[in-house]
């Protein structure tokens, strides 16, 4: 049979394919998860590194904006290196060391991470971006004197209180140059939003320091315009717009045309203003420096999927697959081996009744045990079938042989057909008919076609009818037959036991039990029929004081053609079908039958049937 199973449908192949697919999915999922996790970790690390680098550049640009040289920056470099865990080095454009957090002569990365130039950067709006702006912390000659700071501070406090009295809440912010400005929740408070009673014009008036610096800036801007051959239509001047960062100089002449766009003079003026501002601030800021971060060939960590790493992944994947296939093959072989044994045993001829060894305690072992039990039941049923066929043949052969023999000798004139002979032939025919009827009843019960005509039956009346039908036979055998019911002394009432049954079939079942008891009870013995109620059941019992049944024979009492005595005499032999019919009839009524016996002391057959309510007649209804 196994040779006819397609390869793709074999259990071993299916298990191996399933395991390989599971292993592939597991490896793929693990690899994907590892790559995603590693990538995310690298991205987060790089993001943190980028944030750290931006902060380093911002702080070093601030140092350069507030110091005329890099002298003393070593402490700042070491502090930033300790905080970020990065190597930080500053050099001139020709890589002359200025400050370094690493030991001397440590190799620098091949390229600088950024250029630190406070005059060409914007570390506030775009951290780390090298734009054309000036670091707002570079104030140079615009830095106010302590006296000016104190005077402006008093003015700012007075204006803040005035604004508060008029419903405007503000805070004082000190710019890098030392000038205070007022700000609300939306930012720097413009003059247009200052209450009129508070706008005295004193706070925004330039100090002596600022006037001197603006005059110097204007002179430098005019010199630039002359170099560019730009003629101003009048005297140019420069205004300062104060913010929380620093005063922002604005060139005041020709900034925009009627459409709101910068004119040529205004654009060139702004360019010269920016150049003049850098020229003015240059002496007060540190020179341009190159910033190096990290060591070796790379400043930032990166993930390198090299050929060696790829080979490792492929190798580990192959190893996992090989191990999976090997384990699957081992497990599948152990699993399939007992199944093959079961298949081979099932293919053997039925008469061999082959059993399989039970080698495991798992589901396959349970299946093997069930197969062996099925084989044993089949063997036992086959033996019973053969015995039943033999018994049926014998039971039918004996009366038929007697009938045939007497008919032949009568035909030959050897014996006259007198009444005694006819009575003997009639007895044999009745015995033959009884066997056939018993077999017919058993066949109907097995097929589930046994017809029952149920009605409410009183247990005491049923026992009385059975006793009356067998009393003559019992007296002929010298056996006493009596009935005894519990709670049935009155004709009707709550103490009377009722059952819903076919009275004919129940008399047949009880009659078989009484007939057996008469055959196996010696002269002078007693047979008792009793009934009692137990909860929702009626218990009918047939007890005798006969020879009893051995304990080892009790499980076979209700088997077909079984006899306690193996002889086939007319007195004790019987057909061997009576008790089988009793069990089938009781089961058809939804009840059970049991036997208790002691060898030499008698037997008790107990029938348990569902109890029912007594019928209600017309008089009681009225």
UniProtKB/TrEMBL annotation:
SMART domains: HAMP (SM00304), HATPase_c (SM00387), HisKA (SM00388). Keywords: Kinase, Membrane, Phosphoprotein, Transferase, Transmembrane, Transmembrane helix, Two-component regulatory system. GO terms for molecular function: kinase activity. It is found in: Cell membrane. Residues 333-383 form the HAMP domain. The chain crosses the membrane at residues 12-35. It holds the Pfam family HATPase_c. It catalyses: ATP + protein L-histidine = ADP + protein N-phospho-L-histidine. InterPro entries: HAMP_dom, HATPase_C_sf, HATPase_dom, His_kinase_dom, HisK_dim/P_dom, HisK_dim/P_sf, Sensor_HK_Regulatory, Sig_transdc_His_kin-like_C. Its EC number is 2.7.13.3. This is histidine kinase. The lineage of its organism: Bacteria, Bacillati, Actinomycetota, Actinomycetes, Kitasatosporales.
């Amino acid at each position: 049979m196994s040779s006819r199973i397609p390869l793709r449908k074999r259990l071993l192949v299916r298990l191996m394919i399933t395991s390989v697919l599971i292993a592939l999915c597991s490896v793929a999922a693990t690899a994907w998860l590892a790559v995603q996790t590693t990538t995310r970790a690298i991205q987060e690390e790089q993001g943190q590194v980028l944030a750290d680098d931006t902060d380093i550049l911002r702080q070093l640009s601030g140092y350069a904006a507030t110091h005329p040289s890099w002298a003393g920056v070593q402490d700042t470099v070491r502090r930033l290196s300790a905080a970020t865990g990065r190597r930080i080095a500053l050099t001139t454009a020709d890589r002359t060391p200025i400050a370094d957090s690493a030991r001397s002569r440590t190799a620098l990365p091949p390229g600088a991470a950024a250029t630190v130039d406070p005059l060409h950067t914007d570390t506030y709006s775009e951290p780390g971006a090298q734009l054309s702006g000036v670091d707002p912390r570079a104030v140079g000659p615009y830095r106010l004197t302590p006296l000016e700071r104190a005077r402006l501070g008093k003015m700012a406090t007075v204006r803040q209180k005035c604004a508060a009295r008029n419903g405007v809440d503000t805070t004082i912010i000190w710019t890098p140059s030392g000038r205070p400005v007022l700000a609300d929740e939306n930012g720097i408070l413009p003059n247009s939003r200052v209450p009129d009673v508070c706008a005295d014009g004193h706070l925004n008036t330039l100090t002596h320091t600022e006037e001197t610096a603006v005059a110097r800036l204007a002179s430098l801007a005019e010199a630039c315009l002359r170099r560019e051959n730009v003629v101003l239509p009048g005297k140019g001047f420069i205004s300062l717009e104060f913010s929380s960062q620093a005063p922002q100089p604005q060139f005041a002449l020709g900034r925009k045309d009627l459409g709101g766009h910068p004119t040529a003079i205004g654009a060139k003026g702004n360019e010269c203003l920016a150049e003049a501002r850098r020229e003015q601030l240059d002496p007060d800021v540190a020179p341009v420096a190159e910033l190096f971060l990290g060591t070796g060939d790379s400043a930032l960590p990166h993930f390198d999927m090299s050929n060696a790493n790829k080979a490792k992944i492929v190798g580990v994947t192959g190893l996992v697959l090989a191990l999976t296939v090997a384990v699957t093959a081992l497990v599948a072989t152990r699993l399939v081996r007992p199944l093959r044994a079961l298949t081979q045993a099932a293919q053997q001829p039925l008469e061999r009744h082959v059993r399989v060894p039970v080698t495991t305690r798992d589901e396959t072992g349970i299946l093997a045990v069930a197969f062996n039990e099925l084989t044993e039941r089949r063997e036992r049923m086959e033996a019973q079938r053969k015995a039943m066929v033999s018994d049926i043949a014998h039971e039918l052969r004996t009366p038929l042989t007697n009938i045939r023999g007497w008919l032949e000798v009568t035909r030959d004139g050897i014996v006259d057909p007198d009444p005694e002979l006819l009575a003997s032939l009639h007895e044999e025919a009745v015995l033959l008919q009884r066997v056939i009827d018993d077999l017919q009843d058993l066949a109907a019960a097995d097929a589930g076609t046994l017809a029952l005509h149920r009605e409410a039956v009183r247990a005491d009346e049923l026992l009385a009818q059975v006793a009356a039908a067998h009393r003559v036979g019992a007296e002929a055998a010298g056996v006493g037959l009596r009935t005894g019911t519990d709670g049935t002394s009155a004709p009707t009432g709550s103490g009377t036991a009722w059952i819903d049954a076919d009275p004919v079939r129940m008399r047949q079942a009880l009659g078989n039990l009484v007939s057996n008891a008469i055959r196996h009870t010696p002269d002078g013995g007693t047979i008792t029929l009793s009934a009692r109620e137990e909860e929702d059941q009626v218990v009918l019992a047939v007890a005798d004081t006969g020879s009893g049944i051995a304990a080892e024979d009790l499980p076979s009492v209700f088997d077909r053609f079984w006899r306690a005595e193996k002889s086939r005499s007319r007195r004790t032999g019987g057909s061997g079908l009576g008790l089988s019919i009793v069990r089938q009839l009781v089961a058809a009524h939804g009840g059970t039958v049991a036997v208790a016996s002691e060898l030499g002391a008698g037997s008790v057959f107990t029938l348990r049937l569902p109890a029912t309510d007594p019928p209600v007649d017309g008089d009681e209804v009225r």
